[in-house]
Amino acid sequence: QVQLVESGGGLVQAGGSLRLSCAASRNIFSFNRMGWYRQTPGKQRDLVARITSSGNTAYAESLKGRFTISRDNAKNTVYLQMNSLKSEDTAVYYCAAESGLRNYWGQGTQVTVSS
Asked: What is the pLDDT of residues 97-114, one digit of tens each?
C-alpha cells in the first residue's frame, strides 16, 4: 500500500507554468514506474508522463517539449513541470505508482488554464 498526495494545481493563464508534486507515503524506488495522468469529464484517464526507477522517461507525444517529469527518491516525490500551458491542458491530474500487479492513485489535483 502507498498513499499519494498531489499538490500544485490551480488556475493559470494560457502560456503560464505550473509544477505539480506527488508525495508518496513510502519509498517510490520500489515501484517500477511513477506516472502522471489526466482526465476531463466524460473522458478516459490518459497518460501524461512516466518515469522509471532508473530515471527513464516517456511522454504523451503531444506533450513532449512542454512537460517534464522528474523524481526525488530521497523525498519520495515525483514532479511534473508544465510549461506553455494551453486551455486544452485543463484537467484533473493524477499521480500513479505502478507496480507489476496494480496501480495506486492519488486523489487528483485540478489544473485550469484560462485563455
From this structure: 998 889 999 999 999 999
